[in-house]
Amino acid sequence: MLNRGEVIPGSYDPIFKSLMNTYREYLADIVSFVTKIDKKYFLDNFVFKNVEYIKDNYHEKRMTSDLVVEIKNSMINIEMNNFKYKELSKRNSRYLYKMVNSNWEKDRFIQINIDNFKTSDEVISKFVMMNEKTLEKDEFIERYRISLVKIEEKYYNEEKLTREEKELLMLRLKNKETLEKISKGDKLMEEVNKKIEEMSEDPNLQLVYNRDEYVRYEAEQLAKDKYEDRMNDLEKKNEFLNEKDKTLNEKDKSLNEKDKSLNEKDKTLNEKAKQLVEKEKHLENRFNNLINNLQKSGLSINEISNLLNLTKDEIDLIIKNSK
C-alpha cells in the first residue's frame, strides 16, 4: 500500500519493464556492471527480442520473460524477482533454457536475476557450469543474482556505493526523498526517478499496485499462519519426543543399576566359589596328610580302608596324587 511520500517501486513489473525499455543507457549500465560486457559495445549492438517463448507442445503453459536482449552472438535474459518462493529458481531455469533452445546457434547465454530480497552476503553472485574435479569452467551459460537488499544494507550502513549500485537501489526504494537524494546530480538517474514518480501518479496503476500488494500481504499472512501452525505442531511433537526420551533415559538408568547390582552379585559369588575351592583344596591336603601319617604309623592299606570307610582303589589314588 502506498503511503504519503512514497512511490510505486521501480521493481514493480510495469514500471520495471518501462524503465528497461525506455532508458537504454540505464539497462546498459546494469548489464555491463554485472557481466563486465563493455557498455559502449552493448549500446551499439543490442536489440530487444520477443519475451514470449514459443510453446514446444499444445499442453505447455505460455512462458514470458521480463526482458530478453540479443547482442550479436549472445542472448541475455533479465528477470525481476520481487518474491522469494520455492519454485522461483526452477521457473527462472525454465526461462533460461527456453532461451537457449530457441537460439541454439548463439555462443553465449546469460541470465541476470535481480532479487528484491537478500540472497547472499554479496551484491552479485555468479553461477556457471564447472568440472567438479578440475574446476574447469564452462561459461557457455552464465547466471547472475543481484541482491537489492544487500545494496540497501550498504546504503544505510553508510558504505560507499558505485553509480551502478545506486541505479539498482532505485528499483527497490519507495521513499521519494531517498530516491531524490540518490539520483541528485546524475542526469540519467534523475530521469529514471522522474519516470518512476510519473508512473506512480497514475491512478489506474496505483489501483492495480494496491490490489497486488493486498493479495501479496494476504498470501504472506496465510503463509505465516501456516508456518506458525506447523511450528506449533513441531513443538508439540518435540515435547512428546522429549518426554519419550526422558522415559527411555530413566529406564536405561534403571537397567544400568540392575546390571551393576548383578555384576556385584556375580563378583560375590565368584569370591565364594574361590573360597570353597580353597577350602576343598585345604581339606584334600589334610586328608592326604592323614593317610600318609597312618601309613607311617604302620597301618596297612586294608586297615586304613576300614578306618576311613574308603575303598582300596580310592586310597591308592590319593597316595598316588600326593606324591
Kindly list the characteristics that best describe this protein.
323 residues, alpha/beta, 2 domains, 6-stranded mixed β-sheet, 13% strand, rod-shaped
Describe this structure as you would to a colleague.
It is built from eleven helices and six strands. The chain is of the alpha/beta class. Helix 5 crosses helix 6. The termini are far apart. The model has no long low-confidence stretch (mean pLDDT 86). The protein folds into two domains: 189 residues, no CATH class; 52 residues. The longest helix has 94 residues. A six-stranded mixed β-sheet has the order 1-2-3-4-6-5, sandwiched between helices. Strand 5 and strand 6 form a beta hairpin. Helix content is 60%, strand content 13%.
Q: What is the helical fraction, as a range of percent?
A: 55-70%
Calculate Rg over CA atoms: 45 Å
Q: What is the tally of beta strands? A: 6
Q: Regions with pLDDT < 50 over 5+ consecutive residues?
A: none
Give the CA-based shape.
rod-shaped
Topology diagram in text:
Blueprint: H1 13-22, H2 24-35, H3 39-45, E1 46-48, E2 67-71, E3 74-81, H4 88-102, E4 108-115, E5 124-130, E6 137-147, H5 148-156, H6 163-169, H7 176-183, H8 187-200, H9 203-296, H10 301-308, H11 312-322
Parallel strand pairs: 3-4, 4-6
Antiparallel strand pairs: 1-2, 2-3, 5-6
Helix pairs in contact: 2-3, 5-6, 7-8, 9-11
